[in-house]
Design a protein that fits this description.
The protein has about 130 residues and is mostly beta strands. The chain is built from no helices and 11 strands. Strands 2, 4, 5, 6, 9, 10 and 11 form a 7-stranded mixed β-sheet that branches. The protein has a 4-stranded antiparallel β-sheet with strand order 1-3-8-7, with no helix packed on it.
Length: about 130
């Protein structure tokens, strides 16, 4: 049983920062793609960032254009955890943020929430103007 647990959401003013964490358990995630998605009220879930997690070949990182230069995804092998550092937050970043994982994605699938098998429960991020 794979479990993902997000933490770190909250309320922040525009221009501020938050760091989200996703703790994974139940499997060895050395070969899993880990992703962050977000969903605002009335909108479709959208891709934020993904990291291809491999112990032997390092990682590849992908970002949505809307967060490039502001958000940073990283991972901790020892803790089976993935993080999303969010800087220069904007009101349009307000959403529920979800951690996702899957072991069988091609690169073209990283941005599609439909392709991920495992999801966390989400954490609310609210950015006030």
């Amino acid at each position: 049983q794979v479990q993902l647990l997000e933490s770190g959401g909250g309320l922040v003013q525009a221009g501020g920062s938050l760091r989200l964490a996703c703790a994974a358990s139940g499997r060895t995630f050395s070969t899993y793609v880990m992703g962050w998605f977000r969903q605002a009220p009335g909108k479709e879930r959208e891709f934020v960032a993904a990291i291809n997690w491999s112990n032997w070949s390092g990682g590849s990182i992908y970002y949505a254009d809307s967060v490039k230069g502001r958000f940073t995804i990283s991972r901790d092998y020892a803790k089976n955890a993935v993080y999303l550092q969010m800087n220069s937050l904007k009101p349009e970043d307000t959403a529920v943020y979800y951690c996702a994982a899957d072991s069988r994605l091609s690169v073209s699938d990283y941005v599609s929430y439909l392709k991920y098998d495992y999801w966390g429960q989400g954490t609310q991020v609210t950015v006030s103007s």
